[in-house]
């Protein structure tokens, strides 16, 4: 295996934008990594990607997981070594920082006027870590190394599904809550696996499927292992019985295959049709919970039969009425659940940010999401594989923004930053001290 974070000087032109430019570097020119601190930073980043969706590995009820520890530790090491990239998204960096600043500024301003500033500091710091710190960390990785990160994520999610599937078959429900919590396997048989809840588990599968296709395309994983991983992910998705997870996975697969190669999409469609036909002909039943929460909605075409759609629709209707009074200045962070007649935040990120942060915050959020689409799909003409997987993962993220409240947990944003690093990470296998200067440039003599 090639050494990570080599100090070698690239043989090709500096600043190549094509993803395969790094492949033109003479392998003999790659010197062994001489900095053990940077090697540690790399492996901490890999650990963070592997456990990105293992939300159960956390400090009690505090939103600080093993992934957070690994990623923040890697960030600290990279920063102390002076290797942190100044412009993670190139010329779009200033727009990204401005958009995130509007989101955070709107939330803080509204909270200072109407809410609890101490609570705002906690939420704003979580958003800053997720959307700023992780962006700088992931885009500081040399692109050749970044192309290996999806494999760690896919293996982590697959292992999570294996744990959940085995537990659902071998253990009783009464034995699980004391060790894993109520969401690991719910009372009606849905599995949350190591994600901790069924719906986030469905999201982790939706994120992992396009990355698995990418890993097989880049030969990071052999078909002998990739195909079983695909079926394990699919079985975990079915057992999670999440309509949003199932639909977003299907959409992500269509986008990935269509942008990779239309023939792949046609072949996959035929294979799926044959597989479904064989399953129906066998008479084997689907899990009852999946049939109830997902199958009925698909068969009838009535989305109101999917999961807890009715309850969420009531929250959304309430949020629209409340937004009339919070259109400019919001009610403040975490005030929605206090004011709501349902004692819950609306499961729609746009409406929640609008109500709690006002016009400035919702404007910042909208700009962030537009930039995510531009930074992913915009790369497709020149970086087909990377643009396809990045676009699919970003679309999954966008789907969940209409079905979840605050999304600062790293299980949501880490997969997005991971796939963006395939496009926007350093084009050469060198660190900033050799690839670009840090700080003011010296004046010419």
UniProtKB/TrEMBL annotation:
Signal sequence extent: none
Keywords, alphabetical: Ligase, Membrane, Transmembrane, Transmembrane helix
Residues annotated as domain O-antigen ligase-related: 229-362
Topology relative to the membrane: Multi-pass membrane protein
Location of the protein in the cell: Membrane
Source taxon at top rank: Bacteria
Regions crossing the membrane: 40-57, 92-113, 119-139, 151-171, 229-257, 264-284, 359-380, 387-406
Keyword Ligase applies: yes
Chief localization: membrane
GO cellular component, one term: membrane
Matches recorded under InterPro entries: O-antigen_ligase-rel_domated, WaaL-like
Alphabetized GO MF terms: ligase activity
PANTHER family the UniProt entry points to: LIPOPOLYSACCHARIDE BIOSYNTHESIS PROTEIN PA4999-RELATED, TEICHURONIC ACID BIOSYNTHESIS PROTEIN TUAE
Descriptive protein name: O-antigen ligase domain-containing protein
Taxonomic classification: Bacteria, Pseudomonadati, Pseudomonadota, Alphaproteobacteria, Sphingomonadales
């Amino acid at each position: 295996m090639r050494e990570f974070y080599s100090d070698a000087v690239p043989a090709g032109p500096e600043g190549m934008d094509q993803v395969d430019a790094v492949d033109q570097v003479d392998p003999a020119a790659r010197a062994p990594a001489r900095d053990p601190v940077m090697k540690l930073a790399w492996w901490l980043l890999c650990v963070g990607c592997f456990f990105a969706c293992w939300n159960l590995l956390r400090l009690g009820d505090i939103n600080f997981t093993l992934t957070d520890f690994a990623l923040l530790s890697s960030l600290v090491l990279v920063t102390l070594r002076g290797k942190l990239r100044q412009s993670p998204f190139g010329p779009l960096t200033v727009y990204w920082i401005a958009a995130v600043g509007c989101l955070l500024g709107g939330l803080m301003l509204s909270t200072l006027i109407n809410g609890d500033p101490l609570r705002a500091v906690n939420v704003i710091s979580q958003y800053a870590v997720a959307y700023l710190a992780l962006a700088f960390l992931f885009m500081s990785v040399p692109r050749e190394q970044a192309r290996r990160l999806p494999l760690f994520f896919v293996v982590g999610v697959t292992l999570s599904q294996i744990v959940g599937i085995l537990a659902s078959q071998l253990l009783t429900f009464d034995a699980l809550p004391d060790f894993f919590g109520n969401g690991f396997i719910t009372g009606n048989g849905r599995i949350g696996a190591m994600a901790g809840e069924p719906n986030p588990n469905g999201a982790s599968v939706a994120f992992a499927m396009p990355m698995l296709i990418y890993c097989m395309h880049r030969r990071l994983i052999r078909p002998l292992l990739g195909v079983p991983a695909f079926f394990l992910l699919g079985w975990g998705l079915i057992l999670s019985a999440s309509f949003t997870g199932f639909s977003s996975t299907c959409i992500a697969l269509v986008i990935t295959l269509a942008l990779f190669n239309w023939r792949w999409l046609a072949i996959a469609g035929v294979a799926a049709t044959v597989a479904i036909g064989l399953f129906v002909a066998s008479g084997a039943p689907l899990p009852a919970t999946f049939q109830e929460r997902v199958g009925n909605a698909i068969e009838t075409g009535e989305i109101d039969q999917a999961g807890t759609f009715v309850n969420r629709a009531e929250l959304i209707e309430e949020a629209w009425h409340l937004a009339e009074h919070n259109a400019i200045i919001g009610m403040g962070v975490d005030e929605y659940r206090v004011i709501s007649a349902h004692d819950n935040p609306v499961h729609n990120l746009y409406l929640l940010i609008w109500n709690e942060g006002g016009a400035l915050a919702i404007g910042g959020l909208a700009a962030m999401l537009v930039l995510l689409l531009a930074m992913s799909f915009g790369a497709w003409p020149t970086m087909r594989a990377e643009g396809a997987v990045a676009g699919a993962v970003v679309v999954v993220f966008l789907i969940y923004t209409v079905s979840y409240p605050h999304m600062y947990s790293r299980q949501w944003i880490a997969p997005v930053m991971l796939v963006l690093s395939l496009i926007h990470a350093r084009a050469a296998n060198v660190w900033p001290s050799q690839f670009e200067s840090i700080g003011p440039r010296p004046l010419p003599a």
